[in-house]
Amino acid sequence: MTCENARPLVTAYVDGELDMVNSLAVEEHLSGCPACARARDAQRELRSALAGGGLRYTAPADLRRKVRAIAPEPRRAWFSPWLGKAWLAPAFAALIVVAGAVWLRPQPERVLGAEITAAHVRSLQAAHLLDVPSSDRHTVKPWFAGKLDFSPAVPDLGDKGFPLSGGRLDYIQGRSVAVLVYLRNKHVINVFVWPGSSSSGELATNGYNVVHWSHGGMTYWAVSDLNETELKEFSKLLE
Length: 239
Known about the structure:
Layout: H1 3-14, H2 20-32, H3 34-51, H4 61-70, H5 73-76, H6 80-83, H7 88-104, H8 108-125, E1 132-133, H9 137-143, E2 164-172, E3 175-184, E4 187-195, E5 201-205, E6 208-215, E7 218-224, H10 228-238
Antiparallel strand pairs: 1-2, 2-3, 3-4, 4-7, 5-6, 6-7
């Protein structure tokens, strides 16, 4: 795993949100990369700071009097009756902490996108792109039988400019998934498929484009270094 692959996963690793495969891969990288290890330590310090009680600060009485004296009356009219209620201070502090944590926490969609992108890059680097190399969907589809608890559809898009290259198994979010591999000129498109439904969308992660959607009770995530326009065209054809 490279720094480019590891950095987007550091936050999820610190929060314990990665599956075992990616967690072990990140741990191995961190053990030999001081820069990424510092990023991990910084994330841990931030997490501890947000969880600690040192975010509360009580202003001195003299400073509070001066602020009240210079504050324009219309602006402080709605909240000034509450400033004297000490019991509200912890509530406001907690609200600030929660809002900060929500804002800093990566969205599930982006975390999953980073995991899938890492799997895409790994398949290219480790020469493990294909378990069943074939452009014949009648060869690829039966290959998954008995290896998964579902049967993915394997469309033939060769006449549309996206020939099938084969398929393989991968591991995403704690479960085995099917991966269909298509080509566009010299660009590889990995399509991760598993049962379920999710919202549709697009995102870019580490220079790769990702498109995801649901269809027929299946969730699809397509990732490639192909440009966004052609990848979206491909996703429409696959639907």
